[in-house]
Amino acid sequence: MKRSLIQLLAALSCLTLLLTACGKDQATASISAQPVKTFQWKLVTSWPKNFPGLGLGPEKFAQYVNEMSAGRLTIKVYGAGELVPGFEVFDAISQGTVQMGHSGAYYWKGKMPAAPIFSAIPFGMTATEFNAWLHYGGGLALWQELYKPFGVVPMAGGNSGAQFAGWFKKEINSIDDLKGLKMRIPGLGGEVLKRAGAIPVTLTGGEIFSSLQSGAIDASEWVGPYNDLAFGFYQAADYYYSSVWHETGTNLEFIINEKALNELPKDLQKIVEVAAKAVNEDMLDEYNARNNQALQTLINQHQVQVREFPKDVLVALKGYTQEVIAEQVAADPTFAKIWQSYSEFLQSMRQYNDLTLKAYFENR
Amino acid sequence: MKRSLIQLLAALSCLTLLLTACGKDQATASISAQPVKTFQWKLVTSWPKNFPGLGLGPEKFAQYVNEMSAGRLTIKVYGAGELVPGFEVFDAISQGTVQMGHSGAYYWKGKMPAAPIFSAIPFGMTATEFNAWLHYGGGLALWQELYKPFGVVPMAGGNSGAQFAGWFKKEINSIDDLKGLKMRIPGLGGEVLKRAGAIPVTLTGGEIFSSLQSGAIDASEWVGPYNDLAFGFYQAADYYYSSVWHETGTNLEFIINEKALNELPKDLQKIVEVAAKAVNEDMLDEYNARNNQALQTLINQHQVQVREFPKDVLVALKGYTQEVIAEQVAADPTFAKIWQSYSEFLQSMRQYNDLTLKAYFENR
């Protein structure tokens, strides 16, 4: 009885103390009153762990989120194959095996023919044009709608900028030189090359070097000097073509399991959204700064020969691109709908940039 | 005595209860145990309140911070003149009258001759080139060092992209047409025009329209079609010159009182930093998307005549720019030090973009 009396008194007084204490800092207590719930997320990627550019983006994202949330949401990043193979990232997010991922939309074109529009379209928008379309031209809403049936929420996850045409074991002097060429190239760029008589092959980044070296493939695109130097492709192919055509400003993606995102409190949801936005520019900054530096290393230290496709090769590839897109538009109403928005914006941005950036590049 | 016994028992039991309760959620309690402190900041700007682009950037920043911090840091945004005149923003931050501001570094060139490098240099970097230099080329560290003696911390605060040459009451057919021209133009662009015989004038955005209309000035640059349409300049001048030369990718700034920033806990400091990074891209996205739309409105609804400077006018302006910069380098060791970093990076990015973006703009 004595014990229960003490407990009763204690409980009552404790309540009084709490009320008194609360009265003092009422405005702030309403924030701290709920018990703090913490969340641990796994983030799987399609890149080797800590790979320059592509792989550092999700690491920086995790760091931003951890620090902004003061540890309430911690995110652990996994390289391709550590938890989930590189090309199975989307399914893992959709099934809720892991909460989020970092990848490229064109890897999911088998599942959704329109997906490549959200990573790279041959002769498409540059990085800044794409970001403008995504965030102020209706692009993001269309992307969200595309992934919605899979319970996956997409956000822009960085941009590599304009990519080089790639590494070739022989010179390309005419469109006929592409005939029979086995080339690693994903997305619609591969479809375009097929029409030129080449044989497009899909490989993850980590598989390219050995395939080039063994002769299993004759050519490969990857990203640009910064990443290409890191993979050492100059040791496996003699000719490096700079001509921008197939990936003119490649958008990466953060993809999140919708249910996991909705389970976060509002402030953590916003932290995830804003961290992704910050990483989106950060990756482009990194690519722009490192690419030229790496190009100088490739040229001066590794005697790489940088080439440009002859004009008529680019004209032919552009023609095939129009054919490929027309077929996609005819075959898939979702592709047609998204393409209309994308191509109208591209047309408008092209006029504007011809007057501004293009004119400036010529005059400066 | 009875009362003090109860209090003693209560205190003891309360402690027990707290210890028991704490034991259960130890990991999380360490986060919530401290009383939550809230912060209210004022953010003053050099723009009219809610002005498209420039003025919406700080509004979006405040919204991000408020939501990510769940109200622990609330930021109220003020237009130019509401609390502080547009050209006194830096001093107000430095003196700690307010905690932070949003402005353009070239407004402080009287105080720091090198400041314009962090907003716009004639024939300088584009928006993406500048961001790459700032975040991966050493630019931000130099900027922080420049503002440090004033107790002010700078962060990139959005970019307007390449700006139009501006509005003119008469046609510019040769460099001689600039002689005697009274033109509103800030920063080093004004110094360059002075060498061409023009009379540069400094006015805040809100003062331009009436000055143009009254004939107090003959010409004015502002930003580009999106902002220029909003101010109705087409009603006050007949000729709109698109030629990008004086502001090739203008960087805005968030500036923060160092002491106020250091008083925030680490998580709120990171929230401020990441929100600024997210707004930095967001503003460029908005400008890119809205500028072309506004240009069409200016041309089609308001019969604005868009012109380009003759090539020899641009060549002459480029020559004067080299003179102005050489003088700044000779006069101010800080300008010289920052210019070396800027110009080396510009040179390197120019080579890279000639091979990629410039070639692509020509081929697509």
Structure summarized in a few sentences:
Chains A, B: InterPro entries: DctP_fam, SBP_TakP-like, TRAP_DctP_sf. The structure is a homodimer of 364-residue chains. Chain A has 364 residues and is α/β, with parallel strands linked by helices.
Describe what this molecule looks like in 3D.
2 copies of one chain form a homodimer. The first copy, chain A, has helices at 2-24, 26-32, 56-68, 89-95, 127-136, 139-147, 187-195, 205-214, 225-231, 258-263, 266-302, 311-331, 333-363; strands at residues 39-45, 73-78, 100-103, 152-159, 166-168, 182-184, 199-201, 219-220, 239-241, 251-257, 305-307. Residues 1-30 of chain A have low confidence and may be disordered. The termini of chain A are far apart. Chain A is globular, with a radius of gyration of 25 Å. In chain A, the strands form 2 sheets. Chain A has a 6-stranded mixed β-sheet with strand order 7-6-8-5-9-11. Chain A has a 5-stranded mixed β-sheet with strand order 2-1-3-10-4. The first copy, chain A, folds into 2 domains: 39-159 and 250-288, Bacterial extracellular solute-binding protein, family 7 (D-Maltodextrin-Binding Protein, domain 2, 3-Layer(aba) Sandwich), CATH 3.40.190; 166-248 and 303-336, D-Maltodextrin-Binding Protein, domain 2. Chain A has 364 residues and is of the alpha/beta class. At the A-B interface, helix 1, helix 2, helix 3, helix 5 and helix 11 of A face helix 1, helix 2, helix 3, helix 5 and helix 11 of B.
